[in-house]
Every structure is written in structure tokens, then in C-alpha cells.
Design brief:
This protein is α+β, with helices and mostly antiparallel strands. It has one domain: 3-Layer(aba) Sandwich (Glutaredoxin). Helix content is 35%, strand content 25%. The chain is built from 6 helices and 9 strands. Strand 6 and strand 7 form a beta hairpin. The longest helix has 18 residues. The protein starts with a helix and ends with a helix.
Length: 172
């Protein structure tokens, strides 16, 4: 009995270590400004990576505006919004965001969805005649380790801000 408990605890610890692996550093350039985001410069804060859909997506607009409006209530979480479109398409898409969101939150470009691939976000979702990666939220801890992920099943399946706030309460 004790041996089984010890073995179970070992496997749980091992799985936790695997799930909390440190992400390699990366830098993203804003498509609607001159800002860049580098993971290593965010050490000491949680980072929420929001992988938005390629192409025109009204759910992405609502999701981004909602998070931007409420972000101040989670000051220890940096919200990073990422789109795999080309720079001009992102600029056009950004013009549909609220003016306060446009001013406060750069939209970062993930060229060829390479960061989405690196984080193993599934691709193959058919949207507007294209095959794209699914919408996702990846939460990295203060040391840059992945501690949570949510991959939506379609363009409207998103991890809400209130859900993230609850998740942050669990982690703290």
C-alpha cells in the first residue's frame, strides 16, 4: 500500500515537472506599433499568451477588447495578443478594436504561426476558407514555465477573463 502511494506521488511530481517546463525565450514584434515583447523581460510576472485566429474574426475582437478592459484587475499578468497574419492584415484588424485597446495593447505578429507551432497549438481548424491554428491561451508563470493552457474547439470557444481571474486565484 505504502509503495503504491509513493509510486503515485512520484508520477504526479514527474508529470507536474513536465507540464511546468520552462519556455525558451522569444521576441515578438508589434504589427501596429514599434513595441516588442520578449519573454525574458517579463520574468517576475505571469504572461498570458492569447493566440488569436488568422483572418477576420469578430470573436477575436470581442475577446481582445474584453481582456483589455479588465486587465488592470490582474496587474501581475501581462496580456500578450498574438495574430499570425501579415502586418497589413493585423493593422486593418486592429482598427476594429476599441480605441482604448488600440492604445494600451499592441497586437504582436507571429510570422508563419511559428510560435503557435512551438507551443504545439493544434492546426487544421477550417476558418474563412483557410486552415488555421485553433484559438488558445497559454499561461506562463513568473519564471516563464507553462502552467496552464486552454485550446478552444472553434472560433467562439475562448477562455474568458473571469476564468483566467479564477485560475490566477488558484495559482496564487
Amino acid at each position: 500500500m505504502m509503495k503504491n502511494i509513493s509510486l503515485s506521488l512520484f508520477f504526479i511530481s514527474f508529470i507536474s515537472i513536465l507540464n511546468a517546463q520552462k519556455s525558451n525565450d522569444f521576441t515578438l514584434k508589434s504589427a501596429n506599433g514599434s513595441e516588442t515583447f520578449t519573454l525574458s523581460s517579463a520574468r517576475g510576472k505571469y504572461v498570458a499568451l492569447h493566440f488569436l485566429l488568422k483572418t477576420e474574426c469578430p470573436y477575436c475582437i470581442r475577446h481582445t477588447n474584453d481582456y483589455a478592459a479588465k486587465a488592470a484587475s490582474l496587474p501581475n499578468v501581462i496580456q500578450v495578443f498574438i495574430k499570425p497574419d501579415d502586418e497589413q492584415d493585423i493593422k486593418n484588424w486592429t482598427s476594429k478594436l476599441s480605441s482604448s485597446t488600440q492604445e494600451a495593447f499592441p497586437i504582436y505578429q507571429d510570422i508563419n504561426a511559428s510560435l503557435a507551432d512551438r507551443f504545439k497549438i493544434p492546426a487544421g481548424y477550417a476558418f474563412h476558407g483557410q486552415s488555421v491554428h485553433y484559438p488558445a491561451l497559454i499561461l506562463l508563470d513568473k519564471k516563464g514555465r507553462e502552467v496552464f493552457r486552454y485550446v478552444g474547439k472553434n472560433n467562439s470557444d475562448r477562455f474568458s477573463f473571469d476564468q483566467l481571474k479564477s485560475k490566477m486565484s488558484e495559482l496564487n
